[in-house]
């Protein structure tokens, strides 16, 4: 599940099952988590700048477009996925649907991006919010994905502003995920982070969680 070809095949096959495009949602849709996401987009870090939002491993989810559509403050939502098939399907769908943003200054883009290379798209301390709905879960459950998942987490922390947050939506139990996050997000003298968890709720008998990771400033001695 950490291979590009796997996801290209998945989105090609999934799209061919229906005559018209249909968003595919891992776990749940925007409405289930809007109360976790939208409060983080209430204040701007810079008066004239767009809030930078990354939907990491977006697939063909409507999550990123919904943030774009509902945010009262101007946002630039980047929906990124390793699969060019998923990116193309979303671009075509959005062009056909012509979604209008809540704020006329908001922007929405879809880019092909390996989430282990986030630093190639963003500079340090430039992103306000990163949303990860199932991407880290897919990596952690892959044979060679654990190292990639740790790399992705570290890159997220580097590109996030000090006021920014990473939200990971997952069905992994807090006993396991919190320990992993707290361990991987610490690098003595380089990076540190505060980690918290809230329960999203139960869906089809599975309990889901929202893990919030916030960079903490390292004071150089």
TrEMBL record:
Q: Which UniProt keywords apply?
A: Methyltransferase, Mitochondrion, S-adenosyl-L-methionine, Transferase, Transit peptide
Q: Which reaction does it catalyse?
A: L-lysyl-[citrate synthase] + S-adenosyl-L-methionine = N(6)-methyl-L-lysyl-[citrate synthase] + S-adenosyl-L-homocysteine + H(+); N(6),N(6)-dimethyl-L-lysyl-[citrate synthase] + S-adenosyl-L-methionine = N(6),N(6),N(6)-trimethyl-L-lysyl-[citrate synthase] + S-adenosyl-L-homocysteine + H(+); N(6)-methyl-L-lysyl-[citrate synthase] + S-adenosyl-L-methionine = N(6),N(6)-dimethyl-L-lysyl-[citrate synthase] + S-adenosyl-L-homocysteine + H(+)
Q: InterPro entries, alphabetically?
A: Lys/N-term_MeTrsfase_sf, Methyltranfer_dom, SAM-dependent_MTases_sf
Q: Where in the cell is it found?
A: Mitochondrion
- Might you name a Gene Ontology BP term for this protein? methylation
**Segments crossing the lipid bilayer:** none
- Cellular component, GO, one term: mitochondrion
Which GO molecular-function terms appear in the entry? Answer: methyltransferase activity
Give the top-rank taxon of the lineage listed in the UniProt record for this protein: Eukaryota
Domain Methyltransferase stretches: 50-167
Q: Which family does it belong to?
A: Belongs to the methyltransferase superfamily.
Q: What does this protein do?
A: Protein-lysine methyltransferase that selectively trimethylates citrate synthase (CS) in mitochondria. Seems to conduct trimethylation in a highly distributive manner rather than in a processive manner, and thus introduces a single methyl group per binding event.
What is this protein's record name?
A: Citrate synthase-lysine N-methyltransferase CSKMT, mitochondrial
| Classification lineage | Eukaryota, Metazoa, Chordata, Craniata, Vertebrata
């Amino acid at each position: 599940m950490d291979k590009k070809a796997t996801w290209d095949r998945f989105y090609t096959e999934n799209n061919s099952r229906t005559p018209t495009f249909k968003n595919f949602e891992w776990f749940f849709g925007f409405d289930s988590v809007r109360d976790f996401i939208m409060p983080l987009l209430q204040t701007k870090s810079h008066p004239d700048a767009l809030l930078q939002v990354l939907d990491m491993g977006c697939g063909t989810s409507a999550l990123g477009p919904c943030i774009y559509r509902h945010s009262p403050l101007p946002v630039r939502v980047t929906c990124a996925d390793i699969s060019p098939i998923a990116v193309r399907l979303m671009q075509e769908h959005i062009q056909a649907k012509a979604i209008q943003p809540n704020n006329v200054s908001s922007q929405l883009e879809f880019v092909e991006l390996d989430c282990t290379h986030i630093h190639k798209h963003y500079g340090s301390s430039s992103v306000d919010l990163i949303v990860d709905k199932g991407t880290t879960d897919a990596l952690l459950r892959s044979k060679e994905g654990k190292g990639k998942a740790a790399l992705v987490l570290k890159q997220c922390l580097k590109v996030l502003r000090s006021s920014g947050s990473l939200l990971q939506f997952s069905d992994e139990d807090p006993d396991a995920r919190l320990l992993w996050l707290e361990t991987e997000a610490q690098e003595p003298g380089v990076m540190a982070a505060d980690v918290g968890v809230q329960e999203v709720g139960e869906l089809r008998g599975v309990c889901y969680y929202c893990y919030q990771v916030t960079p903490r400033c390292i004071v150089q001695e």
